[in-house]
Specification:
Layout (H helix, E strand, L loop, with lengths): L3 E6 L5 H17 L3 E4 L6 H10 L1 E4 L10 E4 L6 H9 L3 E4 L3 H15 L3 E5 L5 H7 L6 E4 L16 E5 L5 H14 L13 H13 L5 E5 L5 H12 L5 E4 L15 E6 L5 H12 L5 E6 L11 H9 L3
Parallel strand pairs: 1-11, 1-12, 2-3, 2-4, 4-5, 6-7, 6-8, 9-10, 9-11
Helix pairs in contact: 4-5, 7-8
């Protein structure tokens, strides 16, 4: 059988990532360098290094930004405390939080206003989780996996709701929700699914490819939650091996031994150029037959943050 590549579609940039990256690029064009960005604008090494080369300065906290300067908040969202600390330092803020993450923040506020305990399914220490929980820290309990569900204590077992980080594995989240519903039979669901459309779509595409693949290569960074999940989903759905790489040069020749079909996809914060580089690397090793496996089409676009839109309009851009 000929060596072949099954290329997942959709893959790469989602609407929220595209909006966040373009926000930094347009801010650099409009205000000039430096423009400060709190945390990585998106979880991708190549994107961060490219923006740094243009004059973006990535900081961990607002107190690293000189007073009165512009700071952009990353796509993962921030807590009200972060907005407050920016105001104290007289910083001009541009909020590039993905609108789908903002939706979860609104759900936290609504549930908290009804005095519900919110069980937030997510990964401890992830920026999105910290920002979401920060909307109502006294109401939120983090659920990171199935361990510890039995020991969760709440004020009122009839007033409990669940929400989730947007970039989790769909299957894993449903398993966690099922376990939570066993523990709390009256658990309330969010008004709509929190896992983002792009995360779901990329998982659906790799589920179709994995059973046919001897090897799946996922382009993405180690700190990208949705990219890490794609490797897990590929293995779970039948790929014999799966690896996460930032760049084609990280792929290893020995991975291709005895391999006839390679599945290729990329996380939601990965520019397409990195996938093209990997396809070229594979082509040079005999995997030139590329077939695209399309799970669904994506057409969603998000408008620029309003603060930036206003300044672009004033500048006639």
């Amino acid at each position: 059988m000929a060596k072949r590549v099954l290329l997942a579609a959709p893959r790469g940039y989602c609407a929220g990532v595209d909006r966040a990256v373009v926000t930094v690029e347009k801010a650099l064009d409009l205000y000039g360098a430096p423009v400060y960005v709190r945390k990585e604008i998106v979880h991708n090494k190549h994107v961060v290094e490219t923006l740094e080369a243009r004059g973006a300065i990535f900081v961990s906290e607002n107190d690293e930004v000189p007073e009165g300067q512009t700071v952009i908040f990353s796509a993962h969202g921030v807590s009200p405390a972060v907005h407050a600390s920016a105001a104290v330092r007289n910083l001009k803020t541009i909020d590039a939080t993905c609108p789908l993450v903002t939706k979860v923040h609104h759900e936290v506020k609504r549930f908290a206003a009804e005095d519900l305990t919110i069980l937030l399914i997510g990964h401890e220490g992830h920026e999105e989780v910290e920002g979401t929980a920060g909307e109502a820290p006294e109401n939120v309990i983090l659920v990171d996996g199935l361990d510890g569900i039995d020991s969760i204590q709440v004020k009122d077992e009839n007033k409990v709701a669940w929400l989730s980080q947007t970039t989790l594995s769909v299957d894993e989240t449903l398993t966690t929700v099922a376990a939570l519903k066993k523990r709390f039979p009256n658990l309330m669901d969010p008004p709509s699914d929190d896992i983002c459309y792009a995360t779901q779509n990329r998982q659906v595409a790799i589920k179709q490819i994995a059973p046919q693949a001897d090897l799946v290569l996922v382009v993405g960074s180690k700190n990208s939650s949705n990219s890490v999940r794609l490797v897990e989903v590929a293995l779970e759905y039948g790929s014999k091996a799966a690896y996460l790489i930032d760049y084609a040069r990280e792929a290893k020749e020995e991975w291709l031994e005895g391999v006839e079909t390679v599945g290729v996809t990329s996380g939601a914060s990965v520019p397409e150029i990195l996938v093209k580089d990997l396809l070229q690397w594979l082509s040079n090793r005999g995997f030139s037959n590329v077939e695209t496996i399309t799970a669904m089409e994506e057409t969603l676009l998000f408008a620029m943050p309003p603060e930036l839109r206003k300044d672009l309009k004033a500048a006639g851009k």
